[in-house]
Amino acid sequence: MATNRNSKKFIVIVDQDKIEPELARETVINFDPLNRAGKEGGFYIDENEELHIDDKDVMEAHKMAVNKYPDRDAIQMVQLVHEEGDKVHQFGENEFRLYGLPEPEQNASVGILGENGLGKTVASKILTGKLKPNLGQYQDPPEWKQIKKKFRGTGLQNHVEKLADQNIDSATKPQQVEKIPEIFSGTVKEFLERKGEKEGLPEITEKFELEKLLDRKVKQLSGGELQRLAIASTLLEDAEIYVFDEPSSYLDVGQRLKTGREITGLEKSVIAVEHDLATLDLISDRINIFYGEKGSYGMVSNTLSTKNGINQYLKGHIPSQNLKIRSDTITFERSSDDKGEGEKILEYNSMKKKFGEDGFELQASKGALKQQEIIGIVGENGLGKTVFAKMLAGAIKPDTGESPETSISYKTQYIEASDLTVREAFPQEANMNTKRFQTRIEEPLEIKPLYDRKLSNLSGGELQRVAVAICLSRNADLYLLDEPSAFLDVESRVKLGKTLKNFSRKEEKPLMIIDHDLLLLDYVSDRGIVFKGRPGIKGESTQPMKIEKALNQFLKEVDVTFRKDPETGRPRANKPGSQKDKKQRKKGQFYET
Predict the structure, then answer these.
(1) What is the pTM for the complete model shown?
(2) Domains of the chain
């Protein structure tokens, strides 16, 4: 088999229950090109009468042998990802290349799904006219006449012609909304009106709960408030194509559903880049999968329905293209190694905090943490989850009750990007040269390639992984992580979940995780704490309870039901009033397990 970078590579998947050994000998083995040539490496029957071939020996010519077997479902020959096709853009010699683009459509939302570093942002910049495609000719970029000719006869022809004529108005909601205060110092109202968009302002501020924030400085906003502001500002713009880059970050489940309804209500072309699968499912009419080699090249799948696109991405196999984009399947089944019944090693008393006479008030119930367990913390924004975390960590002094006398390593919600290198940002106590650090933190979080880069030059996902690694590197009795999934792609969230579970079990230490990704919390948590109340006014927390009960109680509070997708186990929001929604409500099952 050819081994150069652009050669096609295949793997073979055999359903042994459907294989008849003698029939396989007469067909597959007999017509195998390597066997016929007297070479090693072809199909063979082993001592257990099973059909096999080593992946490294599979070549395109084996299709003929596979097709000779009468049961087409018994043997599948699947092509692996390889770089091919016509380039849309290349940044320079040996730099990132993008092949293909999603096709915007009027009155439709196109969901973009894929790992970070595969060109999703590059594609959205090209589609909104912020980046002129060079078709791979980075040394001598082509003129629009040549670019239009390249796309003639494709579904992108009309869109590219509009780009060439500079006849497309676009609006983009940026990914890292926490950077907005760095570039804008005014009030919320001034930010919303900065482009002269005043029509519809009262309605949009009410929908996104910004009325009471209009006179507040942007720099004083929380992560969720900044996200709602950025989405509202984007929706206010009069554009032909809208891009929403990770609109779910910092938003709770109720806010994500509300945002999704507003996005789907746009009667324009929408591009949605999102890693929260429940949100992506809600806002997308169809899906394009991005695949390839991170940082090297990205390719775009054909158009898929939303359900099939997400499920095929998780399975790592696109049947319509006979393409395997990942060697393994992403699943979300919870492990059975429940650590929630272990020995109590840390207790905290009830605590109360009030900020000023008319300020926010939090009443936190007492609780106890057990060895090797993970506590998931859920609740709407503005109910005091972060205040609770800071009281536990001793960063905020409660009015009544006391912070526990224990060492806590706390990863904050916001991550500061300084000019320090990643290596310099780790505390001295990290012991980065130990096998323990390397196997439990460095390798699973993929930190090593980042050591010599400045924090200020990292992407949102890279900065998040570094922050989690720094938190876990400290010596502490409890590890408390505030929104660790923000900016991470699906694969990185799965790796994060596995890393946190392994760390807790191996270190025999409890973890507490505040997050809005129900998929992640369901996957990693043994027990959960629910925050209830009136956002921004008063919040109260429950004692720790089984995670299934906590998630069910939380979703009942926000009045939405979730089901599990039968193929992948991923959570999906039910449409209000649907048969499934009514059935689950009747049973009191707001979160299907």
Answers:
(1) 0.79
(2) 10-80 (3.30.70.20), 87-317 (3.40.50.300), 344-546 (3.40.50.300), 561-593 (no CATH)
